[in-house]
Amino acid sequence: MARLQIDAVSKRFGAEYAVHEVSLDIADGEFLVLLGPSGCGKSTLLRMIAGLEEPSSGRILLDGIDITDIAPQQRDLAMVFQSYALYPHLTVAKNIGFPLRSRRWSRARTAERVAEVAGALELSQLLERRPAALSGGQRQRVALARAMVRDPGAFLMDEPLSNLDAKLRSATRAELIALHRRLGSTFVYVTHDQVEAMTMATRIALLHAGRVAQVGSPEELYDRPITAFVAGFLGAPPMNLFPAEVVSLDGELRVRAAGIDASLGISAGSPSGPEILAGIRPERLRIDATATDIRGRVTMVENLGSEELIHLDAAGIDCCVRAARPAGVQAGDDLRLRVDPADIHLFDRASGHRLVWQEPEAPTVHDATAVSVA
Q1: How far apart are CA 39 and CA 43, in angstroms?
Q2: For the chain, which residues score pLDDT lower than 50?
Q3: SS3 state at 276
Q4: Which of 35, 324, 334, 362 has the fewest CB atoms within 10 Å, i.e. the most exposed one?
Q5: Are 194 and 236 contacting, i.e. CB atoms less than 8 angstroms apart?
Q6: CB atoms < 10 A from the CB of 69, how many?
């Protein structure tokens, strides 16, 4: 088990930054997921933690010890690669035991430890097979066993499930969650898959263009995104985001755009407000024939089995609704939607920062820069 501290780490390739001054404090026993789109720097950051890439600046500490310049094999870290990286000519037992033989463990002690780890991952019946005779899920478990065998301080995983089919990926996710709970070790896990991040992480670090966009629990990032990027990245389908204005009408603040007129549930008497981005999660919209919050025409309905995704055009604004099937609507129908004021997110249109109403003061963006609303 180990605490990892990443202190203002950057990685530059020529004039371009792949990772720019990233700082993270990963607690002992935490399951931290590095999430983000392709090219955001998450794998580069993981490789710097492992020692496979050298930072251009910054420090990496393991239990308070600076390991920035220590060779990869001397760090108390185990890496699990996307490609599994198994030796094809070695049996499962020899693949698992390889890190111990390289440390000159005795044959008997190595065999004992291999048997112990293989039993924990249900590989005991496969020890004499070679990787070519294994399924993708079995190869993944062998790669995990090889990482576990020397009892490292932390596990580093670079998209280890991306080569598995959907059913096997779900089963292996559950195995990894159970493994983390059983071992209590520190996990740092790279993925672009939101489902993996939301289901496995104790905390998510969402990266964007080499920088940390937001760090927090899955619930925090989903329910209170601090930027429009975070709001638009998380969710399947993602949050509906549209340009709007905050106006005061009959003593309350409302969000207004073409086809949209929804209350924010805030009492205010001022007659003007800022131009903003408003956001609403698709599952928070409710079909209601008497509603006036959002009005539009259905353009497409996607059948997901137990649910439907209803796409509509609200006077030029694309909007998506997630509803239980059958919702009873079809393309061409006029639709009215209701939204609870608590489910409307506001972001500054220029900076993308979240807007928060603070009585009796005006709303402020997340970094406390004032925005004139009143």
Answers
A1: 9
A2: 367-374
A3: strand
A4: 324
A5: yes
A6: 10
